[in-house]
Write a structure and sequence with these properties.
By secondary structure, chain A is of the alpha/beta class. Chain A has helices at about 1-20, 35-45, 60-65, 70-75, 110-120, 140-150, 170-175, 180-185, 200-215, 245-250, 255-265, 270-295, 315-320, 325; strands spanning about 50-55, 100-105, 130-135, 155-165, 165, 170, 190-195, 220-225. Chain A contains 14 helices and 8 strands. In chain A, strands 2-1-3-4-8-7 form a 6-stranded parallel β-sheet, with helices on both faces. In chain A, strand 3 (about 130-135), helix 6 (about 140-150) and strand 4 (about 155-165) form a beta-alpha-beta unit. The longest helix of chain A has 24 residues, at about 270-295. In chain A, about 55% of the residues are buried. By secondary structure, chain B is an alpha/beta fold. In chain B, the strands form 3 sheets. Chain B has a 7-stranded mixed β-sheet with strand order 3-2-4-5-7-6-12, sandwiched between helices. In chain B, helix 2 links the parallel strand 2 and strand 3 (about 55). The longest helix of chain B has 17 residues, at about 215-230. The chains are: A alpha/beta, B alpha/beta. Chains A and B meet through strand 2, helix 5, helix 6, helix 13 and helix 14 of A and helix 3, helix 5, helix 6 and helix 10 of B.
Chain lengths: ~325, ~325
Amino acid sequence: MYRRMVQIRHFEEHAAEAYAQAKVGGFLHLYIGEEAVAVGAIAAVREEDHVLGHYRDHGYALAKGCDPQACMAELFGRETGLCHGRGGSMHLAEASRHYWGGYAIVGSHIPIGAGMAYAMQYLEQPEVVLDFFGDGATGNGIFHEGLNMAALWNLPVVFICENNLYGMGATLAEESPVRDMIIKAEGYTMPSVQCDGMDVLSVYEAVQKAAAHCRSGRGPYFVEALTYRFRGHSMADPELYRDKDEVTRWKALDPIPKFGEFCVEHRISSEQELAQVKEEVEAEMLEAVRFADQSPWPDPATVDQWIYANPIDPEAIAAEPGQQSQAEG
Amino acid sequence: MAEISYRQAVRDAMREEMLRDPRVILMGESITGYGGSYAVTKGLIDEFGPRRVMETPIAEAGIVGFAVGAAMGGLIPVAELMTVNFALLALDQVVNSAAKFHYMFGGQWSVPLVVRTVSGFGQLGPTHSQSFEGWFASVPGLKVVMPATPADAKGLLLAAIRDPDPVIFIEHSLLYSTRGEVPISAPGDGEVPIGQAKVVREGSDVTLVGYSRMLLQALHAAEVLEREDGISCEVVDLRTLRPLDYPTVVNSVRRTHRLVLCGEDWRTGGFGASLLSEMHDRCFDDLDAPIQRVAMRDIPLPYSRELEKLLIPSSEDIVTSVRRLS
């Protein structure tokens, strides 16, 4: 888990640098500060369990084991990217790992996660779904529609609300009548728990319990992780809505050194070993950037590829011999 | 062949696909005990039970989002949105989820989903009498189907359920009780391919293009024009709006040199507007007269019977348009 958190941190620091060099375009939303949530939650479930995340999605992809090179190449818009440059930073996904992607219309993937959980229940498969979103999503109707259905049909989905106190530039007090998001789950009779999103073990424990609940057929579970993003909403954010002291206070709770100290204290790893991890990860991410930078652009001839899984071309059908009479039949 | 109603044709397609493939599920508002707002799903709950015929909360966006997720998880959902007016609440899930995932995630998975919904009017007032096929048809990634006859309703719905892409299947409330011949040699037979228009009446003087209810209006107009004016109309049923079978329409215009587009949606930005522009590009040199359009005037459809009558596009409007050409 330590390595995974360091991977996300270093990946994003390099992504930010590449963004500053205009090698990454569009929007870039950094997860820095919140790494413990994705890492703790995903480590707590099985490899085959399904994960859906929101637009701040690099953390889920890396925590699910996606190749940092393919992730970075996606940010660079290259053919070698996870989605061949069609999705970009907000839409990393790797279905074969059951990482179903970053969804960038806030809250839209909440019923999607519930629907996927219904498929698991219907097909009698043991997998559960982890569906991540932020505090901001809880103000949207789709959040309530998704929770309502999941509770109504007793579905194996863990809703994980990352409460980082801000919906883009709106403070929690401006966007929600309640500070604790678990209160919103109560109306749907959904069991819930709050955990320390700056502590990977706290998240791990909460999600482990939630997933076991789901897997035993007892329906959905709601986990609220109290966390904080150290960077702005996106690279374009001047952060006028929060004061520097608050950011400094939260930075003192950085989940990476915190878990590092825990590992040293409990003799799980030595300081040298942790330093070694950082060095290795840094080399890995430098390689990811080099790979992305040197990767080819997608072939222009493929720009209309994948609009459909089953493309139907009436022009081609009309050109086939014998089709004319059928069309007139 | 058997003569059945459009409603029965839609129901038969769902039932036969559910019998063929256990992954096919239905979901929608009041589709179980009530049988659906237009009684299309009536009886299916008794045959297939609540796991396969799901009564949903009144939550259109949630229904489509849930169906997208169920499709990603390995099912084939057919989601009913009670009318196309309510489908607007689900527009985000249709456009940003269903239509995008295959492309945006680099072809990793598709969304085999059918969204069934209904156009129509009949003193239902401004919020319940609209046609939005043009909006759906403007979105790459969607397939949009609007059948006019029972045979096409059944055949195209079979094709839609079997298709790996999201299909918006728009029925018409005023067609449900119409009847027509449907092939029934064996369950699941009679699939009609998506993306193929059909010349339903041959003619030499003018091409009338319609779909859904306006196809019937066009056929009626063709009879009137033949009888009263001696004008021979060719009538083309688009059946699928996206992908649109331009070759069949173009070939017809090459024979008749005149074209009238018949739709029920608003004139400004309606489906016919984009069709007209494309036909202009494709066969300007074949045309002997400007393309005519029959469409709804840009007015919300009022409740009052006498006001509503003024606005609904009809066969008389088509007759008038054709006479204007000659």
